[in-house]
Amino acid sequence: LAKKTHRKLTDFRGEDRDPVWAPDGSGYYYLSERSGSFNVWKAGLKPGAKPVQVTQHRSVAVRFVSVAGDGTLVYGLEG
């Protein structure tokens, strides 16, 4: 923000959405279809950092991801 610049954080050619900051500021969690269905992923902020899949739901999509101050994740699944 101080540099008044921006950069693209994901490179997946599908849908990445609903980012929430990790409480320690090291990165962010977000929903992505890159595994075939929406799951929670975590990415760091350093250029070239590879995202890591956090949830492994195959038949239903994760929705509404949120994170608590202690790092606990909560999300909607199956309605």
What do these coordinates show?
There is one protein chain. The chain is an all-beta fold and 79 residues long. It is 0% helix and 39% strand. It has no helices and 6 strands. It has a 4-stranded antiparallel sheet, with no helix packed on it. A two-stranded antiparallel sheet has the order 5-6. The radius of gyration is 13 Å and the shape is globular. The chain starts with 15 loop residues before the first strand and ends with a strand. The model has no long low-confidence stretch (mean pLDDT 92).
Distance between the termini: 37 Å
* Tally of individual helices: 0
Count the strands? 6
Judged by helices, strands and strand pairing, the structural class is: mainly beta
- Show unreliable segments: none
* Share of helical residues: under 10%
Order of helix and strand elements from N to C terminus? EEEEEE
Shape: globular
Which descriptors apply to this entry?
0% helix; 79 residues; mainly beta; 6 strands; two-stranded antiparallel sheet
Short description, anyone?
The protein has 79 residues and is mainly beta. 0% of the residues lie in helices and 39% in strands.
